[in-house]
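hey can u run this one w/ FE2/S2 (inorganic) cluster bound, need the structure tokens asap thx
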Amino acid sequence: MEKIRNFEQVCNILARYERNPNSLISILQAVQAEYRYLSEEVMTFVASSLGISPAKVFGVATFYSHFTLQPKGKYEIKICDGTACHVKKSIDILDALKQHLHLTDKEHTTKDMLFTVETVSCLGTCGLAPAIVINEEVHGLLTPETAVQLVKDIQKSEALANE
Ligand code: FES
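ok here u go:
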């Protein structure tokens, strides 16, 4: 799991917004962009730095769906389960990826923190159904096999990069 060893980046973000509690949402967005999720630790730090209660920060973070309170993998895989993708068996792709990455219904992120697998509603690329997005890049007309191959390619390049 990615550890937040210090809050230097958070301090920079807070300074950028002049520690203004009215900028809470922008501050949380910037913090999430930096750390990929909002940990309890970081939200408590933001609250005390802004002089507001942690409950207020948690409330905002849980209210807006684009904030995530769980750590995410380096590669976020979103499998479209909108109507067009669903009828083209997007669930088979989900199952194949979960099986390949040893994920369960409760565990969406791999232990090595490389992959998070989630479903989303229509990506707006129905002509490419079934489609998935890996870190903002759309891959369409997939089969379970080609989707798993995409992940294998990433695993291979990550392994090479770590050699
Ligand atoms: S339903 Fe999957 S892209 Fe529209």
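The domain at 75-161 is CATH 3.40.30.10 (Glutaredoxin). anyway lmk if its weird
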